Amino acid sequence: MAGSSRKGAEVSENEQRTEGSGGAHTAPVHEVVALLPGSPHLSRPPRTDRVVFGVSAVLALAFVLWGSLATETLKRLSGSMLEGLMHNAGWAFVLAASGFVVFALWLAVSRYGRIPLGAEDEKPEFRTVSWVAMMFSAGMGIGLMFYGVNEPLAHFTDPPPGTDPADAAAAMRTAMSTTLFHWTLHPWAIYAVVGLAIAYSTFRRGRRQLISSVFKPLIGSRYANGWGGRIIDILAIFATLFGSATSLGLGALQIGSGFTELGWMGQVGTGLLVAIIAVLSVAFIASAVSGVAKGIQWLSNINMVLAVVLALFVFVGGPTVLILDLLPTSLGGYLRDLPQLAGRTEAASGEDVAGWLSSWTVFYWAWWISWTPFVGMFIARISRGRTIRQFIGGVILVPSTVSLVWFAVFGGTAMRFQELGRLGDEKTPEGQLFGVLREFPLATAAAVLVMVLVGIFFVSGADAASVVMGTLSQSGSIEPHRMVVIFWGVVTGAVAAVMLLVGGGGGDALSGLQQITILAAAPFTLVMIGLCAALLRDLRRDPLIVRGERAEAAIETAVIAGHEQYAGDFALHIGPGNDEDGEDGEDGTDRGSGTGGGAGTAGGGTPGPAGSSTPDTAPHRPGGPPEKPADGT
Fold first, then answer.
1. 8-state DSSP, 122
2. Within 13 Å and on the Cβ side, how many CA atoms surround 383?
3. Looking at residue 314, what is its pLDDT?
4. Which of 245, 259, 308 is nearest to 458 (CA)?
């Protein structure tokens, strides 16, 4: 046996005896072993990228120092920059978000949907229930607790400009369709684009689990592995750190509001909020260093059970019939209004709608995009072994369905209580959920359950974020070193705590940080468009797709030749091509063999090797090698 090696593949020749019309003969069979999942660099010990890690750490600490020493300057600058971004580039967020939805759904129903994220016989790493629970906890856990009551209630009491509902029922439908627009297909499609690109690049192409690695088909290995790629990964860490810190700080505020609701504290101060963050930081760091399979999976499964218990409690004790009515009504209203909601911009709707968009739709799209490095990489990490169709269906449709049910239960209950005048004067987002639960029996137990849920969402979200930042810091290692994970966990907690201290325990500092997060993550809109182009280029060269195209071409050629030579009186056989005239292509595959050839026989003709020039055999159409990927894989 003769052997040779190439970058990304191992090529060898075996002698194999085949049967043809002239009896047994020897023909070389070229074996190509593609080093896809499980490539050597994926299993080697993690190595810290000093440039990515060092620059990211310095930028994060410098920003915290700036926020501590010059808070007002930071607020004014970030506010003016955000206003300019919303005014001049709001249309880009609206158009890009809808484009990601179309792109993701098209991939799911196209021929690319059957491509696995790993080896073709590989099984999923996690059970489906755990998989859905983990990505849901990481993607929207704290957000749903915050806005499950607040957003439907806000749109119900103050309808979006231009809607003008005629009565309370119409106001409910408008509020629910608007809320679902912000929390279902669009945000999860944004996550799916990044997660799918990283999962395919890592588990199918055998590249490092880095956002920069996805760009190799577009910019080549030299730039993706150089400064260009490092800048992309630094931006990803920066966005992940501040995006997660903002949400974690809001989670601490909600837990603090729970202390007030239960009468354990009069007014929540900065000291208590910092203590909450410190305790939960210890918890999520312990979870993170235990590994994804042990930590996040265990917490996410518990959280799913507790969330179901809370939702059932509100569903049974609240306006059950209204909630059931809202499910189909909200879905129908959302689908009916989707084109209008997705196409609403400042240019077409005037200043009133422009202000509303900057506070809601454009803000949400920018916020989701700021979370894509974190959530996308985490979803990719837990999705190995699933097909693209399964991935998109799970990432988009399942969480969207859960969001529909969640907002119908909590938003519907809040709107009905508001209509009946049963809600108090609680106006803060973190306190409105407790205001609704106050109207139920066992309100104290329900409030404690909410605090536990928020705490676990806090832990699982920060857990996943610290693992992702460790992965980005260590050249894409799937299992980053514990000390790196601990470092980013501590920094995440410190950022949230420091910003709470800057705001004196209020939400102003976190709002300022949220503005900076959006500004820092805005370039990721362009990065995500590039990810789509790179992913599509990779998919067109996927071995499964290339084999299918060659097989279809070979069969089509054989059938045409059979009809031309034998007037349709022939039998089609699938077999290896003729290697006598073939030569190795650039990628190690044989130009003459292809996937299979057709053999046509008429009457008593004997089938021969596909591609041979014997009269009773359909000729094999010659074809060149598949395109060689930019990175050689």
1. P
2. 33
3. 95
4. 245
Q: Token pair of 477, please? A: 């290692």
Neighbour tally for 296: CB within 10 Å:
30
Contacts of 328 (CB under 8 A, 6+ apart): none
- The CA-atom distances, in angstroms, between 188 and each of 129, 150, 466 are 17, 20, 21
Average pLDDT over residues 436-457: 88
What's the CA gap between 246 and 462, in Å, rounded?
Answer: 11
Tell me the pLDDT tens digit for each residue of 133-152. Answer: 777 766 666 788 888 999 99
pLDDT of residue 616: 38
Which amino acid makes up residue 349?
A: S
Q: Which residues contact 66 (CB under 8 A, 6 or more apart)?
A: 74
Instruction: Compute the C-alpha angle 74/78/81, nearest 5°.
Output: 145
State mean pLDDT over 339-361: 77
Angstrom distances, CA of residue 485 to CA of 278, 281, 359, 490 = 16, 12, 34, 9
Q: How far apart are the first and last CA of the chain?
A: 24
- Residue 432 belongs to what H/E stretch? helix 429-437
- What does the pLDDT average to over 159-186? 91
The amino acid occupying position 63 is F
- Supply 614's token pair: 């014997």
pTM higher than the cut 0.85: no
* Residue 219 CB neighbour total at 10 angstroms: 17
The per-residue pLDDT for range 354-398, each reduced to its tens digit, is 778 877 888 888 888 888 888 888 888 889 999 999 999 999 988
157 close to 418: Cβ distance less than 8 angstroms = yes
Phi, psi of 162 (to 5 degrees): 90, -5
- pLDDT given at position 263: 75
Of residues 12, 15, 17, 16, the one with CA closest to residue 2: 12
For 235, counting Cβ atoms within 10 Å of its Cβ (0-12 exposed, 13-18 middle, 19+ buried), the class is buried
555-576 pLDDT tens trace: 777 777 777 787 777 777 766 5
Q: Which fold is adopted by the domain 48-543?
A: Amino acid/polyamine transporter I (1.20.1740)
User: Distance between CA 453 and CA 305 in Å, rounded?
Assistant: 10
24: three-class secondary structure by DSSP: strand
* pLDDT cut 90: percent of the chain above it: 24
For tokens 């269906």, what's the residue?
393
CA 86 to chain centroid, in Å, comes to 24
Q: Among residues 124, 141, 187, 128, which one has the least CA distance to residue 394?
A: 128
What are the DSSP calls for 534-551, one per residue?
HHHHHHHT-HHHHHHHHH
**How many residues are listed for the chain in this entry?**
633
Q: How many CB atoms lie within 10 A of CB 43?
A: 10
- CA 319/CA 297 separation, integer angstroms: 33
State the pLDDT confidence band at 514, using cuts at 50, 70 and 90. low
